[in-house]
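4.2 Preliminary Data

To establish feasibility before requesting continued support, the project team ran the inverse folding procedure on a target of 422 residues. The structure was first converted into the token representation described in Section 3, and no sequence information of any kind was made available to the design step. The complete token record follows.
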């Protein structure tokens, strides 16, 4: 089966009252929660799209699961904005593949139900959303390595450097029709935030700045368009598709990647750039938040570790790979291959920086903001931080082509932050 084709016949929206009975019919879940147990059910979803329930044994809270269900609308916008439930089928497929590729970096799936658009998975009770930890200025010693490793393993393994032509096309077919979520990204990451649009967020001083410096900057918008073109046309690897600090659950030792419903075959640089952009959004917020200089430095170091871990693992996998769609014994010498890999990684960094720039602007001007900035109550402070993020986005976009290394990127960022932000 290629596209997910959910029918309504077997679908109903679950709630606190109906969940216990639904779960009682699923042996794998009964095994986790305990047979015949009284259940406590809480809706804990804080995301933009779906409903997420924490369900636990009333007598023993250590026995718990997470139930995530897609509803036929965009939660962020309300029931008047229809959105197909197919997204859960793609999340189920991606999570299943990730459990093979990077077990221990994603939650275990206990049960999946495409007709009900439901995923029942491991409860990560000892972990919190990375974005919330970073807002509070908490350092996580392993998270950057985990993110870099996750990207290297998943992106290399699903690329044409690793897979044979036919098996790769079969895998691509499993994700090609994640059309509605790709369209959301096309609209909300690459289009609406750069123009007047009814869905955009509004903060008066930021709106004025955006009108004068974003909406009317043809070169910047043409650059964004070029990245939108890359997004829709470069089917390089299976992307997570929404890899930001809100899609990571962490503690001091472990990190888990969640929420892979946007998975599709796209440009590797998109996943890499999105996560970098989100660390920068947080860094800017700490010119106001309590983390201060030390935490801002830590955030920038993490960008370096993410890139270096990603780059070294990705290149290591590539160097060790056997024959694949793109690797043919005897076609290039070892020296030619090494040279090519270097050029490839270099371009990937520049493209990741372009995607980071888009990510920063969409989270600033578009409907779906980030709590790092949007939760700051003082509109004047918020606006100064927003404008700083927009300026940094523009600086990244114009400067990306002269970046030869991660050191160059960090130098550009530090130079930007050397001017007053507030
Ligand atoms: P959405 O697709 O709507 O964005 P998410 O997958 O991001 O939903 O989940 C929303 C929230 O639910 C997360 O921010 C997190 O707080 C919680 N959550 C999701 N999965 C888990 C899990 N496996 N364990 C614990 N909490 C989870
Ligand atoms: C309307 S776009 C909603 C956003 O929320 C999701 O988490 C993705 O980031 C998406 O772009
Ligand atoms: Mg999501």
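Position-by-position output of the design step:
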């Amino acid at each position: 089966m290629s596209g997910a084709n959910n029918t309504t016949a077997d679908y109903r929206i679950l709630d606190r009252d109906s969940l216990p009975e639904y779960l009682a019919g699923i042996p794998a879940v009964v095994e986790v929660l305990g047979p015949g147990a009284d259940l406590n059910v809480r809706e804990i979803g804080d995301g933009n799209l779906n409903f997420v329930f924490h369900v636990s044994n009333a007598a023993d809270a250590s026995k718990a699961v997470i139930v995530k269900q897609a509803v036929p609308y965009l939660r962020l916008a309300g029931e008047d904005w229809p959105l197909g439930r197919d997204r859960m089928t793609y999340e189920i497929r991606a999570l299943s593949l990730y459990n093979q590729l990077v077990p221990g970096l994603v939650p275990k799936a206990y049960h999946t139900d495409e007709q009900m658009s439901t995923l029942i998975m491991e409860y990560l009770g000892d972990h919190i959303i990375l974005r919330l930890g970073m807002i509070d200025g908490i350092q996580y010693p392993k998270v950057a390595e985990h993110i870099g490793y996750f990207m290297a393993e998943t992106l290399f393994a699903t690329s044409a450097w690793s897979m044979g032509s036919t098996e790769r096309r079969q895998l691509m077919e499993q994700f090609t029709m994640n059309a509605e979520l790709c369209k959301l990204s096309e609209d909300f990451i690459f289009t609406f935030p750069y123009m007047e649009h009814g869905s955009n967020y509004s903060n008066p001083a930021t709106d004025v700045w955006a009108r004068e410096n974003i909406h009317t900057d043809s070169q910047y918008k043409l650059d964004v368009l070029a990245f939108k073109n890359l997004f829709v046309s470069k089917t390089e690897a299976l992307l997570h598709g929404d890899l930001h600090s809100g899609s990571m659950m962490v503690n001091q030792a472990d990190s888990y990647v969640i929420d892979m419903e946007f998975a599709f075959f796209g440009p590797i640089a998109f996943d890499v750039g999105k996560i970098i952009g989100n660390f920068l959004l947080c860094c800017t917020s700490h010119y106001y938040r309590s983390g201060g200089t030390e935490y801002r430095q830590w955030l920038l170091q993490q960008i370096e570790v993410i890139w270096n871990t990603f780059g070294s693992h990705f290149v290591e996998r590539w160097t060790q790979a056997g024959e694949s769609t793109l690797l043919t014994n005897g076609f290039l010498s070892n020296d030619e291959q090494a040279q090519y890999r270097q050029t490839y990684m270099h371009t990937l960094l520049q493209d990741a920086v372009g995607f980071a720039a888009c990510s920063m602007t969409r989270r600033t001007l578009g409907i779906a903001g980030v709590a790092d900035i949007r939760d700051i109550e003082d509109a004047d402070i918020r606006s100064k931080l927003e404008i700083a993020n927009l300026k940094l986005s523009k600086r990244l976009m114009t400067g990306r082509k002269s970046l030869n290394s991660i050191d160059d990127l960090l130098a550009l960022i530090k130079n930007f932050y050397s001017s007053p932000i507030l």
